[in-house]
Amino acid sequence: MIGLGTVGRVRRAGLPLRRTYDGVARFGEHVTFFVHVLAGIPFAVRKYWRHILREIGDVSFGSASLLAGGGTIGIVFAMSGVAAIMVGVETHRGLELIGMTSLSGLLSAIANTRELAPVVASIALAAKVGTGFTAKLGAMRISDEIDALDAMAVRSVPFLASTRVVAAIVCVVPIYMVGLLAAYIATRFTVVTMGGDSAGTYDYYFHLGLGASDLWLSLTKALVFATIVALVHCSYGFHASGGPEGVGRAAGRALRTSILAIGIADVAMTFALWGIEPSVPGLGLS
Q1: CA-wise closest residue to 105 among 91, 118, 90, 124
Q2: What share of the chain is helix, strand, coil (3-state, %, to 5)?
Q3: Where are the membrane-spanning stretches (predicted)?
Q4: Domain boundaries, the chain
Q5: What is the pLDDT of residue 64?
Q6: Which distant-in-sequence residues (6+ apart) come within 8 Å of 37 by Cβ?
Q7: Pick from 208, 177, 128: which is nearest to 185 by CA?
């Protein structure tokens, strides 16, 4: 006879294996969903372009944005400005220690363009837009609306997820540009107006460090990050379960996953796009 204690120990011993199996299964579920969403983009653009336009309006400005003070664009402008002020403060203080504050413009051009602007825009997109995607799709899932779409022969993945991915990709361009402009203005204000550095010197080194290729590569990062955010949040909402509480848990997990994915992708793309060795084309340094 096998005692109850033995059965309990066997179950506890198999618990890590069970959790690993469930984790791998969920990962495969998300990856499969990503493939279906990306494959459904051409169909969604051709069939549901009105729905895409409606999503673009919600993502860019949000509902009742004129009354609420701005949607995602306002959030990105504020976040980029605050983060760029800290870049300006720390850059100026660090260079002041070695008597090279004249290079503040150079570091502002590199740091804001290559790292700060795309990452801040993507995190703001995840926090404000991505969680909205998860909540809406999760609510539709637990109320069986997605099953109803499938029953009516409406392809739910392209209609609900691919359209939102396209909207996020389109909208991140102006959102990113507003954030980048806010970062440039905030850093220059901090260094020149507050720090007392020469405006001419700052602008000279800023334009030396800012190349056209940097802007295109930085925009590429923002587009990739927006795609990651939309895919992750749509997937968690589409597979939500457990009622309203489950939707809330899915939104939290989606936000954590998307921010972690943005960090990993940022490191990988920085090395892939700008190389291992540092380079500043305007100064002839490479």
Answers
A1: 91
A2: 85, 0, 15
A3: 27-45, 65-89, 165-186, 215-238, 259-276
A4: 29-273
A5: 44
A6: 157, 158, 161, 162, 165, 231, 234, 235
A7: 177
